[in-house]
Amino acid sequence: MSAFFSQLTSIGWRDVIDILVVSYFLFRLYVLFRGTYVFRVITGIGFLWVFQRIAAYLGLIVTSWAMQGIIAFAAIIIIIVFRNEIKNVLQAKDIGAIFWGVSHKAFLTPEETIISSVYALAQKKIGALLVLPAKDDLQEVIRGGIPWRGILSKEMILSVFWPDNPAHDGAAVISGKRIEEVGAILPLSRSSDLPSSYGTRHRAGLGLSEKTDALIIIVSEETGHVMVAKNGEIAEIKDNLELQNILREHSGVSTGEKGARQEENLKLGFAAVILVVCVTGIWFSFSRGMETLVSLEVPIEYQNRNPGMELLSSSLNAVKVHLSGSGALLRSVKPDQVKVRISLGKAVVGLNSFTITQDNIFLPPGVILKKVEPQVVDVNLDIPVKKELPVQIDWVGKLAEHLILESAKVEPEIVSVIGGSKVLEHISTIYTEKVPLDNIDKTGRLSVNLALNPASLKVAETSNGKATITFTVNRREKMVVE
After folding, report:
1. What are the pLDDT digits (tens) for 18-53?
2. I need a labelling partner for 400 at 20 to 30 A (CA). Which of 36, 68, 116, 481 fits?
3. Angle between the 256-288 and 2-9 helix axes, to the nearest 10 degrees?
4. How many CB atoms lie within 10 A of CB 364?
5. Residues 302-352 pLDDT 10s
6. Is residue 441 within 8 Å of residue 472, measured between CB atoms?
7. 3-state DSSP call for residue 76?
8. Phi, psi angles (nearest 5°) of residue 157
9. What count of other Cβ atoms lies within 10 Å of the Cβ of residue 34?
10. E strand residue ranges, 185-291
11. HSE on the CB side for 157, CA within 13 Å?
12. Rounded to whole angstroms, how far apart are CA atoms 158 and 154?
């Protein structure tokens, strides 16, 4: 669990953009190809890819290799077999329909389909008997029905009651968006006060309404009139609006096309969320990989130093950074993409200790920091000051026995040195670099460098960091022994 949260906190803004771009691309494919055979095949390939990743994670080499081959072959099959369907989808009138448009389907609710079908039958004077169940179970009341389970449509209803259809004299039981049964035989009403114009369909519809809470729609074959039977009563319907109200009251639905549109928008939103979750999981899979580890030596960059202070010394110039991630990702990481930065904005004069944490290390997206060695760095800061110091020659060795150094002069005699106040307060003299006397055998002049110790010291701009030594050498006089 801690590894998961560590991975989660490593997601940067580039990773978020990466996930959202891929998710949106897949969402556009879903919007364009939903409801087509191409989408179903792509969904199947997606499941194969998930299975392949699981096999690879478990170390099933042959299975993973076989799944990769099947996926590649299936992708080629999609392009070849469904090229016409893909062409039709992509032939949009404008580019917006491909990249951001959402084409809404023409929605027909079950009530609208039934109304359209009933009045088409009535116009052609084709008798029909449609049963819409409510809460009561109809299995014990009706009999002889043929299981159908067909999708409800106007063409389906017209074909069921077409005179040449063997099941056209029976009733069709409609539940939701499906025709459950056709050719069903309903119980006849025993009422004796029915008009003589009512035929068997009317008596069957009224008979079922007397025994159940179902709604029965009757289309007369002789007159083409539409009638409705419910709760033991039968009445003629004046127009399609009246039938629509009765159907909606029976089913408790009043949203119509608006409700269907909201349902579609809900499905699109759900699909978008699922795609983002899946792409995020894929991102974790690729970024985490098989926990490949690498170690890099990274120099430390000091930032935000107070201009009034000077960095005298630090205990570390570089640290070793241990990283993990997928092998392909780590192989693409360049050394300059990994940064270790320490802010000196809150540092004070003297010795400062800093602990290197995740916040000090900047990594490419998908790379995880495992460890830093060492984790603590000491930095010494001081306020730079200028100090006038005398210059002294640092002689080493000795002259030959017959020679004597009569005089020596150094120019400049005093130099301005810039350095930390804590350092300069303990320094009273600046020496030249070592001048060997062994090599001197006559009067002359030498140009030597000033020895700045520690190295953080530097001479002012007026001096070039060199000194000139002028010296006089004579022969030593022989002593007379009496």
Report:
1. 788 888 888 877 777 776 666 777 778 878 878 877
2. 481
3. 100
4. 16
5. 888 888 787 877 888 898 988 877 666 677 777 788 889 988 888 888 889
6. no
7. helix
8. -65, -45
9. 16
10. 215-219, 226-230, 233-236
11. 29
12. 6
pLDDT band at 128 (very low <50, low <70, confident <90, very high): very high
8 Å CB contact between 340 and 301: yes
Torsion of CA 420, 425, 428, 434, to 10 degrees: -40
Give CA separation, 312 vs 269, 302, 304, in Å: 60, 12, 15
Tell me if 170 sits within 8 A of 178, measured CB to CB.
Answer: no
CB atoms within 10 A of CB 352: 16
Tens digit of each residue's pLDDT (9 = 90 or more) over 73-105: 877 877 777 666 666 666 654 555 566 655 545
Where on the phi/psi map is residue 252: left (φ > 0), alpha (ψ -120 to 50), or beta?
Answer: left
- Mind listing the pLDDT tens digit for each residue in 385-411? 888 889 998 988 888 888 888 888 998
